[in-house]
Write a structure and sequence with these properties.
Distance between the termini of chain B: 104 Å
Shape of chain A: globular
Order of helices and strands of chain A: HHEHEHEEEHHEEEHEHHHHEHHHEHHH
Distance between the termini of chain A: 32 Å
Mean pLDDT of chain A: 87
Number of helices of chain B: 17
CATH class of the domain at 229-338 in chain A: Mainly Alpha
CATH architecture of the domain at 229-338 in chain A: Orthogonal Bundle
Oligomer: heterodimer
Strand order of the largest sheet of chain A: 2-5-8-1-9
Helix content of chain B: 40-55%
Radius of gyration of chain B: 58 Å
CATH superfamily of the domain at 229-338 in chain A: Magnesium chelatase subunit I, C-Terminal domain
Shape of chain B: flat
Largest interface: A-B, 29 and 26 residues
Largest sheet of chain B: 2 strands, antiparallel
Low-confidence stretches of chain B: 187-290, 307-358, 508-513
Radius of gyration of chain A: 21 Å
Largest sheet of chain A: 5 strands, parallel
Amino acid sequence: MTDSNADTARADAQRFRETYESIRAEVSRRMVGQADVIEGVLTALLAGGHVLLEGVPGLGKTMLVSSLGEALKLSFSRIQFTPDMMPADVRGTSVLVESEGGGHELQFEQGPIVANLVLADEINRATPKTQSALLEAMQERQLTIGRRTIKLDEPFCVMATQNPVEQEGTYPLPEAQLDRFLFKLVVGYPEEGDYREILRRTTGEQEVELSSVSNAETINAMRSTVRQVPVPEHAEDYAIRLVMGTQPGSAYAPELVNRYVSLGSSPRGAQALLLGAKVKALLAGRFAVATEDIAAVARPVLRHRVLLGFEGLSEGVTTDQVVDEVLAKLPVPQEAAG
Amino acid sequence: MSADQNLTRDLDQIEGRAGSMLQGVESRAAFMAAGFRALPLLAVVPAVFVLAQLMRWAGGGEPALLPLPFVLLLSLFAPGIPAARAAAAARASRISRSRALAEADRQLDLSDRLVTADEFLRSDARTGFQQAAVEDAARRSEAAASTALETPEAAVAGSRRLPVWGALSLLLLALSGWVSTLEPRLMGGGEGTTTAAAEAGDPLDEEVADAAVTAEERAAPAPPEAVPTERRAQDPAEAKRSESGEDVDDSVKESSGRTGAGRSSGALSSSAASESRSAPSTQGQSSKPAERDKKKRESKKKKERKTGDQPTPERRPEDEQSGATAGKGSSKGSNRNPTASEWQSKDQVTEVDDQEVEDDEDTDEDEEEQENRGGVQPSLRDRRPPVSRDLQIGFGNRANPDANGRGGPSEQKKSRGVASLVLGVPVPDRVKGRPGPGPTKITQERIEPQAEEAGAIVASARAARSRPVPALSSVELGPQLRELVRAYFLARRAAAPPAAAPPAAAPPARKPQ
């Protein structure tokens, strides 16, 4: 423990905040409104996770991700998921090519998943078989095709979109797939004041050109900074109890959870809570995670990890209500300890 | 290290202040919670006091036991004792350091900086971020140590019950005060009157009894100890009398309402009749007939009530009897069959008047009963005129209203003769609706063939080949077969004389197997 270490930490945290702010400002040049969604996407990217964006068509989900790719100077690929898409269309496959000597040989052609930023557009339109092609890439950050294993370059971030309205002909994401998304962000309608700016920017003659304000190395350094943020014991306890509060039958589960929830969050939810909270703490100018940081990311982290039972669905209970109830009923660790 | 020591000192100071504040809040909360839980004691003490007063007064003693202010103080003290104990227990418990610092963090909006710094201070090897967090907290701890903390409100449930129990307690205290004003009760002669009046519960009688007791007390005061003993001796006998209803004056009976004088004779007879009817059950019939009789009688009573002042006709013995009672020695010699069911006994009408009286009411019930039995039963009491034997189907498109179902499609067929004795489901004459789609009509149309124009191809002469034929690769022949053919021709060419023999003389080529 030296003062120089503390100075380095302070400098890292300061750089983190400045870079974050510059990326956010650049993306906001094209995206009007949706400040929470932009912040959520950036938080997930810097925490090293993947994002699931849910919203009705026309709200700029795809534009947000592509803008991010432009602002970060990262390799960006877009996969439009369709029902007839196969796993090889995502991961890549071996094709027969003619060699220079006139012969033929099998050569691996990598799929669009091999990129820094992957936009999986309308991911719920693909069959579960194709959706599962993303599982290994999202968790292990590598691809295994036959006997070939490809390590994906960091930063690797999958940003998937799905439409909650058109459910016909779609395949809901399996739980294992959902659990791999750090955040699920709900993209809502813009505010009334944002409409004029959206119309002006999108229907005018000039198009907004984004410049890259960061790159892969910077993003990786920011991710490293996030990992260094310490988590005090009471904040850890709070995250654990928050996750346990979503599990029916646990000691911290409120009545609403016991009645309406059939499956709660996994330990991966607690990991996501702390990673998201670390980014929040840095952005708030603190050097350690506080309970309020965990509470701030509880909704996007837990809303897709809670599975409602039949009674909950029929009663119209939402997972956001469940998370809010757990937050309201969960005592702060110090108070519970007495 | 001096910065750490300063921070530790500040944290200790904050913890001390926040801890004592939280302890006070917890103590108050515990006091109030326990007090609200013990609120019923507010009313229990006056209630016990009033009971004691009443018992003392009933024993002939002076009802005033204790002065009322003393009872009031005792009532207030009763819930205060457990509340004080709970408050003392709460004050004895220690508030943890992390909780006290968390409260300070919450009030000063420090986002857990003090708690976090306190935890990191205990760590020997701090990382750069932990040290930065400690230094960050140290910058704010000095200001936090000098800032006053607000005492949070202790939220205790149950305060809404306070007015209820308080009001009840005051009511009981008022009652206690009223009981204290009562004069001591002395027992003497004329106890029967007093007891009867007291049992009747009439306030007027109670006053009369009190007056009588007072008069007799003045005339001949009896020793107070003897009165309750004598009364206790009399009480069991009186209780027995009241139970058995023997040797009790009519006046007493009237007051207790047990003679049934207010009930009509019809009610009495009906109750008696129902009791007698429900007795026989050995004939495989349940008590339903008796219940139906009861219902009918009730409906009759309603009708009688409607008629108003008309005198109640004397009940005929036929009404009180049923077929089920015929086997019990009825001396009327009627033709009722004891095994017959209720609907059969109704059909066996003995008097015309009886039929007229019950006619309108029973018709609907008969139909319902027949429906319940699963079909239309022969009813001798069906007063509709017999259907005609006209077998014609109907009048044009209109159905014959008098059709009996035997001449064609009509209403449900009614059984006659032996079939009437068989219980069964009614069979409709025909099933409504079309049983099948009907005959299929196939129409064939003959169409004359029509000529269609076809594009004629104009034949033309093929021109001669202008260029030599290039080497054509024989795709059909494989390499082996090609070699075989080549060898064959080479052999032929070698075997042939220079003047080539005609090819017809050559041996036929053998096809490869």
